[in-house]
Amino acid sequence: MKKSLIALAVLSAVAGAAQAQSNVTVYGVLDMAINNESNGVGSGGATKTALDSGVQSGSRLGFKGSEDLGGGLKANFKLEMGVNADAGKSAQGGLAFGRAAWVGLSGDFGALQFGRQNKPVFNAVDSIDPFETGIIGGTAGDSTSATGLGNLFFASNPRSDNTANYTTNNLGGFTGTVAYTFGEQAGDTGKASQIGASATYAAGPLSAVIAYNTEKDKSTPALNLKHTFAGLTYNFNVVKLAAAYGLVKADAGYSPNGKVDNRLWMIGATVPVSAAGAVIGSYTQTNDKLVTDGKGNQVALGYTHSLSKRTNLYTSFSRIANGANANAGGLAYKAGVTERMFNVGIRHMF
After folding, report:
1. Phi, psi dihedrals of residue 205, rounded to the nearest 5°
2. Short-list 341, 320, 307, CA closest to 264
3. From 74's CA, which of 46, 48, 158, 255 has a CA 20 to 30 Å away?
4. Among candidates 136, 155, 154, which has minimal Cα distance to 146?
5. Bridge partners of 195?
């Protein structure tokens, strides 16, 4: 109750400021879906049907704005809280602003942001994945789900606290981002620190991105967890194609993952079928190189239909088939399990 009252007081104060300043925007997303997941029957298999929040896009309430400081310089901020709308609770483990909380400056030099924000590698994955890391089997309060590529790729949180981020302005279609996360561990500045970077090229129908992130262990900074990602999309108008490849590696002893050596690739497509509707599909394969028969394959198919600029209906289905020693998916209780997921939902943006 105390946390709820504090959060309400903070939101009320920010909302009051938003009303007083025309350059502050209040926005949000409410996304709800009936979601069914099954990984077989008998011998420990499980089936779950639930009303979930944040399946296509994470439900949220946000505040963002800027102040013109003159000479092309602006001060910017963003506060965004995740919401488990099915239960009226805060997402991201109950954080007040778990999706974003940063302040910064922008101008001819680019943009600087300081605070909690997406890692560059997460933004890269989200820009390439036809499902935008969402749609089916959504984990409430997160921005990744079992059809979205992010669920199969990330071995850690896609956001980072205590982060300084710099992004260049558009330079002939190229933009770059570098980020440093302060570990804030006494006695060793390297412990729990992170370094991330991405480079993007976008021109006409083509978009391509490469990204990297390394995280040092909280106790032993010589141990690292590394994510590497490359992807591209090409829009032919009648179909938008996507392809991606990723690596996830962690040193032996890294906490809490231990040694990791996973490879992932994806091909996907978005096909407009009307002015309001589009069919989305992807095939993704993961491969745990530390074990034999460690491949997991996912086929996903979805449809989204816009009722207006701010409201749409969606549905999707996916099937994950795991090798004998692979365990990709949400409900998979052991390696080798095949998982199926289906949902129907509605999303409203304001």
Report:
1. -80, -10
2. 320
3. 158
4. 136
5. 180, 214
pLDDT digits (tens, 9 = 90+) for 60-108: 999 999 999 999 999 999 999 999 999 999 999 999 999 999 999 999 9
Structure tokens at 244: 């991606």
Written as six digits, the tokens of 245 are 């490849």
CA distances from 333 to 60, 198, 320 (A): 30, 35, 13
Per domain, the residue ranges of the chain are: 25-349
8 Å CB contact between 183 and 190: yes
- Determine the CATH number of domain 25-349: 2.40.160.10
In the structure encoding, which two tokens stand for residue 80, read together?
Answer: 């965004």
pTM for the full model?
0.87
Side chain identity at 284, as an amino acid letter? T
Give the C-alpha distances (Å, rounded to integers) separating 245 from 25, 227, 250, 299, 348. 36, 11, 17, 16, 32
| Contact partners, residue 93, CB within 8 Å, separation at least 6 | 141
Cα separation, 106 vs 199, whole angstroms: 19
